[in-house]
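Chapter review: from sequence to fold.
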Amino acid sequence: MPKLGAETRLLSFFPWIGAIVYLSMKLKKNKYELILKISLSAPKSFSTRSRMMMESNLSWIAASCFPFYWFGKAMLKYAWRIPESEINNWKKSILDIFGSWRVWYKLIAFFGNIIFTSLIVFSIFFWGR
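The token string follows.
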């Protein structure tokens, strides 16, 4: 089972990085405008932190996917106590902000979820031995 988790993570990692690099290059000149729009559409209690995450992260696109990652949504909902309706509204706003690039954005979030989930599964089986 650990081998399957490692293989899944590796097979998802390269398309994930490729999509992030591609989208980063395409949106390079609109980067700060998009970061500002995304952080302003975030729930009030998380707006400043979301902007900080995107500006301080090497890949601002991967950081902007935070509410789309399963662990990110759980953290927003339980640790930050943000209602699910506000998280869902933020996710819709982010997709609207990315406009025609939303398919690439959803692809990045999908591969990110696979990578992080397989990392957790791999860790459980690896350290559980």
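Two observations follow directly from the output. Residues 2-127 form one domain. The chain has a mean pLDDT of 91.
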